[in-house]
Amino acid sequence: MRTKKNITAHDIFPQLQEWRRYFHKHPELSFQEKQTSEKIIEVLKSFGVFKIETNVGGYGVIATLTTGDGPVIGLRADMDALPILEQADVEYASSVPGVMHACGHDAHIAILLGAARLLSEKVKDQSWRGTIKLIFQPAEESCDEQGESGAVKVLKSGCIDDLSAVLALHMCPWQRRGTVQLHDGPSMANNDEFHLIIKGRGGHGGYPQHTNDPLWMSTFVLQTLYSLSGRKLDPLQVGALSIGQIAGGEAHNIIPDKVEIKGTIRSYEERVRDQLVEEVRRAAEIVKPMGGEYELMIQRGEPALYNNLAINQVLREAAESMTIIEKPFGMGSEDFSYITREIPGSMFFLGCGLEEERGLHHPRFDIDEHSMVDGVTILLKSVESLLESEGGRL
Q1: Residues 74, 161: one domain?
Q2: Of the listed 140, 192, 213, 302, which one is catalytic?
Q3: Is 140 annotated as catalytic?
Q4: What's the rounded mean pLDDT across residues 93-98?
Q5: Of the residues 28, 33, 78, 80, which is catalytic?
Q6: Are residues 75 and 173 in the same domain?
Q7: Pick the residue with more confidence: 232 or 80?
Q8: Which residue range or ranges hold the Peptidase M20 dimerisation domain (predicted)?
Q9: What was the pLDDT predicted at 126?
Q10: Is 353 helix (H, G, I), strand (E, B) or coil?
Q11: Whole-Å CA distances, 151 to 112, 164, 363, 389
């Protein structure tokens, strides 16, 4: 009598690829992921073992599998795409003009569906006790009019209040397949945005003496803002300020009444976060002795992503056959940070780079699709370890 072979992530690679390419071809922006959600639900229902909750935090989906008392472990994938016109010449390129999966969320969904596929087989042998929640989260890339992203909405739903631990991954195009990037503690940045309006008195460019030129004032503010990271921060602290937009004036011979400056403030620690915000306010004050006024709006965004040390150790053991890079993920931000602020959790970056690197949010972004096998494998090994941990206490 032949023993039934256990299905592995390698065995389902064609399905992972099919799912990923479907989602890549049919991208949807934040809070608009209706078709994406419907496809996820269709696939989950085909497995026949999950309790499925829909419309969680928008178009979010949570699939629950339980075999009795034990820890409750969450696996999270984000679902939304970006407002980018795809330039990749592939048959699965976006069919939606100006919308593209340029951050790997299509692969995140496919990997989590792959984990669901294998879990639906494992549940039959009843070899584990506990609960697994697969969280397909909407709107990681944007906030709504209340300033809330999908992670905040999912937390507010109460559907993941019972989690003992939560895991997530992110595709990493700057590392090749076979590599996992991990980091303990703060690993992605606080993300704050500022909008500064410098107000003066406009007039004819030929008679500047009758004006109070906000463009001239803005040059001093810009010099101060650009010097903040290098001169106001402790060199051992992590922080960055970048200006992304300057707008002022409508004609070559008219001095405007105002200039608008928009930018982003990134940091790892709350103390540095608060310091940089205060320094932006001080920079704005420069215009007052020059006869100007200003308005400053600060939009506090995602907190720094904090990776739980004990859960990271579980991930290291799950990825022990791969090359592990111990390094922060950079000054990008991730709304998974809202979740790890409430629930012990960690995110790892999964190497997926092609020979020609195509960075995150690039119009030709693509991945080594075989890396999805690694993602499924690491998630499942980690879940098994966490379910075996005593009471799920980490």
Answers
A1: yes
A2: 140
A3: yes
A4: 98
A5: 80
A6: yes
A7: 80
A8: 193-285
A9: 67
A10: strand
A11: 17, 17, 25, 26
